[in-house]
Every structure is written in C-alpha cells, then in structure tokens.
Design goal:
The structure is a homodimer.
Chain A lengths: L4 E7 L3 E8 L4 E8 L5 H16 L6 E6 L2 E3 L4 E5 L4 E4 L1 H9 L3 E5 H10 L9 E6 L3 E7 L2 E2 L31 H4 L1 H13 L7 H6 L4 H9 L3 H25 L3 E5 L1 H4 L2 H14 L2 H5 L2 E4 L6 H14 L1
Parallel strand pairs in A: 1-4, 4-8, 9-12, 12-13
Antiparallel strand pairs in A: 1-2, 2-3, 5-6, 6-7, 9-10, 10-11
Helix pairs in contact in A: 3-12, 5-7, 5-8, 7-8, 8-10
Chain lengths: ~300, ~300
C-alpha cells in the first residue's frame, strides 16, 4: 500500500510555507513564498499556488493549515488575524472544494506545538510549547493532542499578569508578560533605558529611533552592560511565568521557540535560573526544558500532524 | 438489578468522614469521627470503624479515599501528609484486603474537585476547583476526570509567584499566593498591620497574640476598615492568580471552596473584580465563577466518584 500523503500549510504574516509529507512526517516537497498581503484573495491564491507546486499529481488524504489569530475551528473560518488584516475567511471550505479532501485549521502556536511534539519520544503524552517573538503564546499538548480548553483559548501565556501596574498591553490589561518580554516590549524598554543613560553604547542610536529586540541582543553579545541587564531582567520575568505554568500543568517537558528566546543566551540562562529558583525542587526535577528543533519548519510539519490526527 | 454501592472516605487532619452511596451519588449512610492522630494505626482503625458503620452488611463495589499531602497513586500509598504525621502507608492495600474490593486513593483537593464537579450539568467536561483555606490548591477536571499532569503535581495553584520578593513560603520560594492569601498568611499580615495601627480596633488583640483569618473576617463584618482593606487586598491577589489560571486553562467554570474565600464577602467581591479587570473580555465572558455547593461533603462524595470512575 502506498504511503498516505498530507499537505501542511504554515500561513504567516510574511511567508507562506507549504509541505507535502508522508504520515511518517517525511517531507517530500516544500515551497515557500512571500505572503501576498494585498487582499484576502491574494493570500488564498498564494496558498493554492504553493499547494499546487508541492502536490503535483500526488493523491493526498487531507490538508492542515496553521494561521495566526483567532479562528472558528468547526466552521474552518479564520475570524481575525491582525497581522493579515482579514475577517471571516472560510479557508477550509475553499481548500476542500478545490482539492476534494478534508481540510483543518488551527492556531499557529498550537500547530507549532504539534510539530515540535512530533519529534519527541513516543512515550511522551504531554508537553508545552512556548513561543516568544513578536507576541508570546503557548501551545498545550495533552494526550498527544492540542488542548483547547472550554472555548478554544487555553494557553494565553502572554497575558499572565507579571506586574499589576506595569505597561499597558494590547489586550487592555497592565503588566502582561507580552507587554514586558515580547520583542517589541524589549525594544521599547531598551530605548527608554538607553535614552536615560549617556554611558551606554546604545544611547546615541536610541536618541535617533526605537531599538529592536534583535539589536539589543547584538549589543549584549558585544558586552554592552545595559543590554545584558535588560535581557537578564526579561529572562527573569519569563522564568517566573514559566514556573507558574509548570506549577499549573506539570507538563514534564517545556519547549521554547521564537527569536527572542532562541537568540539571547542572557535571556535563556536568566530564565532557566529563575524557573529553578521558583519551583519546588521535586517539580523542577521532573520537568525538562528544551529549545525548539524545527524552528521555522515546526508550523508546516505541525499542520501535517494536525491533518493526520483529524483524519485518523 | 440492585444499585451498585460505593464507599467514599474523606480523611482529614481533624475529621474522618465516610459515606455509603449509590452510583448515582445518593448517600445511604454516613459517619464522621474525629481523626485519631496518635499513630498510623489509630488513623487506619478509625477509617475501618467508619466504613464498618456505614456499610453494615451491604455489598460494595469499590472504595475511594481522599487524603491530604502527596501520594503514590499506583501503589496506593500515602507518602507524606504533614497534617497527619505519616509516611508510606499502603492504605489501598489495607482496605482491599479487609473489604475484598478495589480501593483507590487521591489527593483531597482533586477529590473535592470531582465531588463539586459531580453536581454540575452533564454537558460540562472541564472545570477547576480552587480551595482557599489553611493552604491553597486547585483540582483540575478535564474530560470529567482529575488531570494529574505528567508526574501528578498539576494544580499547584498556591505556589504561583505573586510577589517576587514577597513573604517566604513553606515551599522555599518567596511571594507564593499561599504565603499571601491562605488563612495563616492573612492572620499574620493582619497582626502585623494592626500592631502598627493604634486607631484599629484589632490593635489591642494583635498586641496580645496572632489574629486568625476568621477573626479578621469578623472584624471586617463589624466594619473595621483595616480588616476590610486587608481582605480586599487578599482578594485582589487571589483574583490575579485566578485570571492567570483561566488564561492558561480556559476551564469554562471555576468553583471556589474553603473557609477563607467562602466566609469573606470582601475577598469574594475584590477577587471577582480583579479577575474581570485582568482577563480579556472575550475570555471573561466565557467563564463562570461559582461557590462550592457541597462544602464539607465534597471530599466524601468526590471519593465515591473516584471509586466509581476507576471501576467503570
């Protein structure tokens, strides 16, 4: 019997990455294009184009799609993707009609969690995937499946309140983890700190424009003390939130992805030290902390896992 | 066919409460005695005595036991119950041998969660039960079952870090929710506050001895401003932690038990106001907050549910 094939689509704000893979997650073909943000139609045409390119004349069993923002899973509708500027697109219906196979949609962080989980030991049932980039979110895997909670919003890790009177978050609350430790928040805080500190090598640049989290990490690699201090502080905030999450879920494994946490050893080390300090030794000892393996591929591979789980 | 019968035992630090109930959770007989803390033997003799009393000559299908502290579920062993002063008691084996039916053991907060969940609507799959008393803990119900996490420690709600440099907790961390908002912490903080405030009607008593959380709640009912202020602050801490938990689990329903949260309207109202302020409106709107219904009975009823779930 021929191996069953699946399509996995990772629809991001800048790139659309699509793979054709076997049920064993072996990638047969892949195609990445820039997401054409002009309109809903151009985004969807881009998806079709990548699927046509990787599929060729192969027979597929199902399609999985990772999308940012909120969605209506049962109706297969992407309700709101701020980075995409779209509302209520019946994505899975459009895909099912064109390719005559079932199509499934899931939030990008949850799909990345499935992707990263797929390369873990078979004996593992639970894990949490934490992404720290432009935003902060978590995908919760329980019994090898995405855990959605009662209404599909489980894993709002970026909105844990870390400082009751802290900086205003996009969600309306103050002091959310995302408003302190996501990339834009790191850049904004570094700019503020550097403007007030003439002795910092970030000072001149900060007077001209906002620093980015990437630049702060570069300054830190160059030995800039203020940058290191800020990234360590950021790591401590992340670590405290991770300890809270481990206390509540006892996940056994926490996988970290996203540029902010993967590109800064200062954040990584301060985060893990804080986690260790906050957790009871018995709970710390039973939890593993790892970096994402697939990085940019976890979305597309996770979308294949999603399609496979839904059709088996 | 005769209805199947189960025994549920709620083994507490002060009382042992045992019920005989049908699979429909109708209580046929119940017996409560003071837990005889002299030794492991006297505690276990007390359990036997209550079971003998409620069982009579009825045929039972299984026994469920709620115990405080850590336990080894597979071996049926209570490893550590600080309030009981015991270690490694093979409780389920002793019960199975004597009554010739399977016996199951679970942490008291998790069992109370099962008990409270049993009187909810059939359509409900998930809920969280939060107990705020001498300690603070949460029992997580997912797919109608206790969620244990990877190593059995899920739901360590009392050890969320609320104040990174706050009061030392028994667990070794600083600023845990339990070190701020559990009964003893409320009493200790009230004593400290009242000693420094001659204008408070708690002042004279606080100079003599430590206040209890119960006394603080009584002062607040009498209109004492410092007590009200302290309970409202406590409610805000609890609310912030509850919002974190809802963000991570999206449980749909949060049930509150325990004397601290049930006996103080100041805590209750400040807590719910804080939850509302912290959560995104869409998440707040999809979550219900309720007080425990069974109160003192949730442990024994939950132990019956445990026995029934494990044998069906």
């Amino acid at each position: 019997m021929a191996l069953e094939m699946y399509i996995g689509v990772d629809l991001g704000g800048t790139k659309t990455k699509t793979v054709l893979a076997t049920g064993n997650l072996e990638i047969i073909n892949e195609k990445t294009i820039a997401t054409r943000m002009d309109s809903e139609e151009t985004i969807i045409q881009g998806i079709f184009e990548t699927i046509d390119a990787v599929k060729g004349r192969k027979v597929i069993k199902a399609i999985g799609v990772a999308t940012p923002g909120q969605l209506n899973r049962e109706a297969g509708i992407a309700i709101q993707a701020p980075s995409m500027g779209w509302h209520s697109v019946p994505l899975t219906r459009l895909l099912s009609e064109r390719y005559q196979v079932p199509a499934y949609i899931e939030n990008d962080i949850n799909v990345a969690a499935l992707g990263e989980f797929s390369c873990q030991d078979e004996s593992l049932n639970n894990a949490v995937y934490i992404n720290v980039g432009t935003g902060i979110g978590a995908g919760i895997i329980l019994s090898k499946q995405v855990f959605l909670g009662n209404s599909g919003t489980a894993g709002e890790f970026g909105h844990l309140t870390m400082e009751p009177g802290g900086p205003l978050c996009k969600c309306g609350n103050r002091g959310c983890l995302e408003a302190i430790a996501a990339g834009p928040a790191i850049g904004a805080r570094a700019t503020q700190w550097a403007r007030a500190r003439q002795d910092s090598s970030m000072h001149a640049l900060a007077l001209q424009r906002e620093l980015s989290a990437k630049e702060v990490a570069e300054f830190a690699r160059g030995g800039e003390k203020l940058a290191i201090e800020l990234l360590q502080e950021t790591g401590r905030y992340l670590g405290r939130a991770v300890a809270d999450l481990v206390n509540l879920y006892d996940p056994g494994l926490v996988i970290f992805g996203g540029s902010v946490v993967l590109n800064s050893p200062d954040i990584w080390e301060a985060m893990l030290a804080e986690v260790k300090m906050r957790l009871m030794p018995i709970i710390y000892a039973q939890t593993e902390f790892a970096k994402a393996r697939f990085k940019g591929d976890s979305g597309a591979i996770g979308a294949v896992v999603l399609a496979k789980q839904k059709t088996n």
